[in-house]
Amino acid sequence: MPCKNCQEKPVIKLTNVNISLCKQHFLRYFEKKVKKTIRTFNLLEKGDKIGIALSGGKDSFTVLSILKQFQDKKIITLEALAIDEGIKNYRDLSNAKKFCKDNNIILHILKYEDFFNNTLDKMVKKFKDKTPCSFCGVFRRYLLNYGSKKFKFDKLATGHNLDDESQSILMNQFRNNPEVSARLGPITGVMLDKKFVRRIKPLYFVTEKETTTYSFLKKFPVEYSECPYASFGYRNSVRDMLNDFESKYPGTKHSIIDSFVKILPSLKSQFKESKALSSCKLCGEPTSKEICQACEYVKELKK
Ligand code: SF4
Ligand SMILES: [Zn+2]
Ligand SMILES: [Zn+2]
């Protein structure tokens, strides 16, 4: 099927709407869609200082590159924040450093070793009874929020796309976790709280396939290697199931997202008051308990 707009050779078929697009028209379609998400959900306000959670993967380079257009128009300022977990032969931020240097973007790097006295490689040896992603995720979220406040970001932009979000929605549904779903959406958080820097997801309505194609056509210097500790649990089963459904019933993932966005305002208002955040007694970061989970893990690491 040739490009719907110009009959040129296509680079992608959008199965949910059954059309194909050539390189030029796909790039235009993709950026238009991301900018519409930004506009519709007020993800950016004039004068915002936005941090980009930069991992060196296709999603974060895509977000950085599109938000840079807003910086070039002097609507926002932009800085990047990368987390170095300390994973030998995997976490290599040299491409991210070069990309930021070439694009004149300040890059901050926070390391697990500096904050938690251990690299992830060391933690994995100490926490034999836990899956690496469970504690790594806690430390990563901790440093992203800590860094966002330290560097005075108004919001932190992440690379979550439509596939990631539709998986999260289903996982919360299957596990009866509506309270966790209330924190999802194109802009996260159920309340405006100074302790927690809100996350924005400009890629909310574009799929994994579209983002991969965009990143490939733009020749971003993406790291393709896989984390050696990635756990292939629940999320993977949901992803496989969703991909299978999508191939049999095109448009399934979009339907999940579109219906979720319709119920999100009532979900957010229902769970608004349920858990006010307090400050961790040890580090001051936001938590719903006395001591935050990151500090609990650090205590365990010292034993
Ligand atoms: S895959 Fe898991 S262990 Fe590896 S960096 Fe991501 S969260 Fe951490
Ligand atoms: Zn075309
Ligand atoms: Zn703490």
Q: Features of this protein?
A:
single chain, 303 residues, Rossmann fold, five-stranded parallel sheet, binds iron/sulfur cluster, alpha/beta
Word description of this protein:
The protein is α/β, with parallel strands linked by helices and 303 residues long. It has a single domain (37-276), classed as HUPs (Rossmann fold, 3-Layer(aba) Sandwich), CATH 3.40.50.620. The protein is built from twelve helices and nine strands. The termini are far apart. Bound molecules: iron/sulfur cluster and zinc ion (ZN) (2 copies).
Give the arrangement of secondary structure elements.
Layout: E1 12-14, E2 19-21, H1 23-40, E3 49-53, H2 58-72, E4 77-84, H3 94-102, E5 106-111, H4 112-116, H5 120-126, H6 132-150, E6 155-157, H7 162-174, H8 178-181, E7 199-200, H9 208-217, H10 234-248, H11 252-270, E8 278-279, E9 286-287, H12 293-302
Helix pairs in contact: 1-9, 2-9, 7-10, 7-11
The structure holds iron/sulfur cluster (SF4) and zinc ion (2 copies).
